[in-house]
Amino acid sequence: MRPTDLQSKVIAFLRFPLVVLALFMHCNFSILGGEWDSLSFANGFIHVVSQRIAPMVCPIFFFISGYLFFKTGFFTADLYVKKLTRRFLSLFVPFLLWNLLYLVLVIIIGLFGSRVPILGIPIEEMSFINGLKAMWNMALIPGGNALAAPVAVPFWFVRDLMVTVILSPLIYWLVTLFIRISGKKPLVRYLLFTAIVFGIGFIPALPGLNPESWLFFGFGAYFAIKKKEFIVAMLPYAVPMLITLAVLILLEHWMPCEFIYHLEQVVAVIFCISFTTTMVRSGKWYVSDMTLSNASFFLFACQYMFLGPIVMLLGSGVLMPHNNFVAIVIYIVPVILTTILGLILYWLMRTRLPFITYLFMGGRR
Question: For the whole model, what pTM was predicted?
């Protein structure tokens, strides 16, 4: 199989499992306290999955986005305009529609209570200006949710990606500068990249201006500009990266540090891609039907509609975690239910409302 074909298969395969893995980030029962604190094994398991493994999802998607954005290997003003036009449909349109939908839903729910869910403000304080703020960054609303995300919470990724795409000429210049400085000397390249990863920790993350998105978008752009298939470069490193990742997770646990955490993310990206490439190339993993891959964006977008209420219900004590096994089951069930319900909703909308689904999917089929 040609490297380009294999790479396309790897990207197609990764989409759905990564979105499902992202659901675990928003399903962290270990922060609830109470009986959960006494279950050390379950707490440790949830912590590793939700706060160490699942967070690698966003860097991988930023990495793939950067590679696909610059996959031609060159960059011109005309190409920049064409790419912005395409991203308007694939990023801005679904960002706007999903945020409007979530905003309408939380306002309707708020009318039957005293506060607007997710936003965390009294319904009386819901105004047009606060609605606009909620669609970009809820933390801008006084006395509301301090989370620096839009009301459609998962779309913080799309928001930051949109800003990164707008700044892509700067990223292109920085990546080409990195290539010129590092030249053909691997040691210089690795040391310089490590220094960049270290420096990222000192740049404050602002809504829409996320240094992590620049790092991984630029990481993907590096392979595209060099006209290299990233799967070829990463393929030999599955086992070394797995060992390195385990060491970094242990180090970060005992010595919490921004640099170690970011390095952990870089290693996780390389390991995930190299391991997936190995499995896809061997034929053990394959995409026989693109339905799940195509549905991944819809599941990503609608997850909070199902995951939020399910997590709130189970976290309220309806099911008590009497032991580690029950606690892990309670942790996994919301993800399974959300995935099933999301896929059902996607199928219903795609078959009954194809054009509306097309817009909500940003032109994705």
Answer: 0.90
